[in-house]
Design goal:
Blueprint: H1 3-63, H2 68-93
């Protein structure tokens, strides 16, 4: 095989590798975007779940159908909300 042929073969393979690199780079970017979208969807779903758990707790409290553990968890969550509200009020008053 002549040097020119070897050079052309190497050059062709290099061009193929560059095309493959660009294709993989584009695919990687698409996968990153898809992953970010899925993370946002998972966060939104988790927030929805937490909101539903809170609603369940409120409904149980309203119906008087709470166990002692549920009551303690509910009071803990309620106190946490009150502390967060107090922090917001303190922040806004400065």
């Amino acid at each position: 095989m002549a040097v020119d042929q070897q050079f052309n073969t190497v050059n062709d393979k290099l061009q193929q590798l560059l095309k493959q690199h660009l294709r993989l780079k584009k695919e990687n970017e698409q996968l990153k975007q898809e992953l970010e979208t899925q993370k946002k969807n998972a966060e939104a779903a988790q927030q929805t779940i937490e909101g539903l758990h809170d609603q369940i707790a409120v409904l149980k409290m309203a119906s008087g159908d709470m166990s002692e553990r549920d009551k303690k968890d509910f009071e803990k969550k309620l106190n946490q909300y009150i502390r967060e509200i107090d922090k917001c009020i303190a922040f806004l008053s400065h």
